[in-house]
Amino acid sequence: MKNPSDRRKEADSSSPSPAVRDGPLPPTRSCLVCGVDNPRGFHLRSRLRAGVVELEYTTRPADAGYVGITHGGVLATLVDEVMTWAAIVASGKPCVATTVCIHFHKPVPPGARISIRAPLPKSRKLMRVAATVSTPDRGLVAEGEGRYLRLSHPAPEVGADFVPDPSAISPDEILR
Questions:
Q1: What tens digit of pLDDT does each residue of 85-140 get?
Q2: Residue 124 belongs to a domain with what CATH number?
Q3: What strands, in cross-sheet order, belong to the sheet with 95-104?
Q4: Is residue 147 a part of any domain in this protein?
């Protein structure tokens, strides 16, 4: 198994497309993480800042696996969300994960403020994306890496799932 710092160095990264400005990324209706109409969703918003997709979240007691420890699946879901958005912004197309790997370094207690960050990868059909999860008091708590496939011919429903939001980057700015 490779050293986590080696994986970060290997992840393909580049600066953001000049066509995409910094700001909140648009919400969707159905997504588990950002879907405004998903009754079981997190209702969170990722943001693009200087070529990095970021997401902030405070873990809840309901997110626990074992008592006092946030479930790894919750962290993995949030990491996948941020890495997916990084691939989408970089490629200008909807993307899906083909593989996601999470390396947990330290437990995250309920009530912890976590920050998840994924630099934009180089745009290609299959993109390697890396992400970090950190907290102010524990530092780096997890890392993720994945491969994301750019969809050449996404279903029309994908674009229709975005919710208009004047405070967010327009889906038309991202999907090109």
A1: 999 999 999 999 999 999 999 999 999 999 999 999 999 999 999 999 999 999 99
A2: 3.10.129.10
A3: 23-24, 47-49, 52-58, 113-119, 126-135, 139-150, 95-104
A4: yes
